[in-house]
Amino acid sequence: MKRAMAAVAATIAGVAWLVTFRVTPHARPVAAVPPAGQPAPDATATPSQASSPDAAAPTPTPTPVPTNRPANGTFTGADIPTRFGDVQVRIVIVSGRVTDVSTLRMPNDRARSEEITQYVTPVLRSEAIQAQSARIDVISGATFTSEAYAESLDDALRQDHLG
Do residues 88 and 78 touch, judged by C-beta distance below 8 A? Predict the structure, then answer.
């Protein structure tokens, strides 16, 4: 019983210490970072060994950036087969943003599939536009359709370099 009381007391003291512990920032000297393309100065160099301020430093040449910018337009995702029917979407991109997602194919060969499609299509569309990606939530009861929708959406986004 004494051990249990000691353990409880130690635990309470430890928790109290953690709650009241404050981190104080300490200023540390930061080493100077040389500009890109220039070697770091030698820490042991004497002033006579260091480069003179009159020496012309080479100017770095700008590296061209690849232009994988999203284009405006309409992009159709892959036709993804599921056990309940095919799923395929088409997206509209304006200024690099998904502004509309329409379904070209959704499961509808059975009455239950048609019912689920009518329910999940607007929800998936809203999720896709809000997320601006294929990372959308799977809808319970329509797992296969949701996953296929996301896969087709991802394919369309990759066509526009957004995925």
Answer: yes
Q: What is the DSSP letter of 110?
A: S
- pTM of this prediction exceeds 0.85: no
Instruction: Return the sign of the alpha-carbon dihedral for residues 143, 86, 153, 163.
Output: positive
Ranges of the chain with pLDDT below 70: 18-19, 21-70, 162-163
Please tell me the distance from the alpha carbon of residue 160 to that of residue 139, in angstroms, as a whole number: 26
| Residue 156 · residue 80 · CB < 8 Å | no
Boundaries of every domain in the chain: 73-159
Domain 73-159, CATH? 3.90.1010.20
Report the alpha-carbon distance of residue 71 to residue 89 in Å, rounded: 18
